[in-house]
Amino acid sequence: MSASTSGRLGWTVFTPPIAAIVLAFSWGTHPEPVVAALIGIALIGAVLAGVHHAEVVAHKVGEPFGSLLLAVAVTVIEVGLIVMLMVSGNGETSTLARDTVFAAVMITVNGIVGLALVVGALRHHLAVFNPEGTGSALATVITLAGLTLVVPTFTTSESGPVLTGSQLTFAALASLGLYGSFVFTQTVRHRDFFLPNTTATPGGWTPDDDADGDGHADPPTNREAWTSVGLLVLSLLTVVGLAKVESYSIEDAVDWFGFPHAVVGVVIALLVLAPETIAAVRAAVRDRVQISLNLAYGSAMASIGLTIPAIAVASIWLEGDLALGLEPLQLVLLFLSAVVGVLTVVPGRAKPMNGIVHLILFAAFILLTVAP
């Protein structure tokens, strides 16, 4: 391995395979606390490695393709996890998709956005981003959430927050259409609206990575990039798999504390979205808040736009109703998040206070999930 490859990859080459071995030996088990702690260490290592490899690939393909790649990769695996849990039939599955998607939306549009804005504004006085691109992303998230999570609460053709077959088909097709249109806008038609407007070093490389002395970090070679693609996929698969293994310990802890079962889904969502959270914060530290927002809103969009169609197809074989409509308390939190998000995005720059408002909403979501 060359010095350049070693500098870029290093320990991250070995961590995903080790974590995968841990997953292979722990899959299907109900680990004791000490073993669960060791599995947790492997999970954290896989998360950190996944973030690093995502940045290597992002540096090779450029933005906004890099943030789009990480958002889609995590969401595709998350969808597989949801479907797997629904098919297994453990616990309450009728609201599993709704609760998981809603948790992902709240984590991304308030948790990740809030952290990125606070970190970026504190380090660089103001967090600056492009309101045109970010505004279209937020508008798409709000529309997707409204059609798939809000509308089912008020439909009357079926009793409860459930869509009919034709309504669910429309919601699935609309989700795919909106998400596909946004990806086209982000990567082809108006790509410049989603690029950071700073001269910060892309990918977080240090001057040591500038072998040719041109003042810019050298892009990874094709071999390095393809190696990172494979290790990124392995890292993400391992993160989701280990999160599933840890879910047994999480369920035990939730039951011991007497929390609602929905808390399990929130904790797992936090684990699955950890790579995107870390990547977004690191981008904000480098004054590339636009990338942070691309990750946050892109993840929210992908979580809805890919999950709902997949669940719609899976529902053909699954027994029981698929409850997608939000509860009144969840509706209030989503409405507040949408209003605050619009007020944050429109100016194109944010103070730490803007991020704090989002983080308070995220804290309220966590508290009201634990104690509704």
Q: How would you describe what is shown here?
A:
The protein has 372 residues and is mostly helical. It has one domain: NCX, central ion-binding region (A middle domain of Talin 1), CATH 1.20.1420.30. It is 73% helix and 1% strand. It is built from 13 helices and 2 strands, in the order αααααβαααααααβα. It has helices at residues 3-8, 15-26, 33-61, 65-88, 96-124, 131-154, 165-189, 222-257, 262-272, 274-285, 289-314, 328-345, 352-370; strands at 127-128, 349-350. It has a two-stranded antiparallel ribbon. Helix 3 packs antiparallel against helix 4, helix 3 runs antiparallel to helix 8 (222-257) and helix 7 runs antiparallel to helix 11 (289-314). The longest helix is centred in the middle third of the chain and has 36 residues, at 222-257. The radius of gyration is 20 Å and the shape is globular. The chain starts with a helix and ends with a helix. Residues 1-7 and 199-217 have low confidence and may be disordered.
SSE-based structural type: mainly alpha
Mean pLDDT: 81
Can you tell me the residue ranges where pLDDT is under 50 for at least 5 consecutive residues? 1-7, 199-217
Distance between the termini: 53 Å
**CATH fold-level topology:** A middle domain of Talin 1
Q: How many individual domains?
A: 1
CATH superfamily, by name, is NCX, central ion-binding region
Largest beta-sheet characterization: 2 strands, antiparallel
Query: What fraction of residues sit in β-strands?
Result: under 5%
Strand order of the largest sheet: 1-2
Judging from the principal axes of the Cα atoms, what is the shape? globular
Count of individual helical segments: 13
What letter string, H or E per element, gives the SSE order?
HHHHHEHHHHHHHEH
Name of the CATH architecture: Up-down Bundle
The total count of strands amounts to 2
Pfam families: Na_Ca_ex (PF01699)
Organism: Nocardioides caeni
Main location: membrane
GO molecular function: potassium:proton antiporter activity; sodium:proton antiporter activity
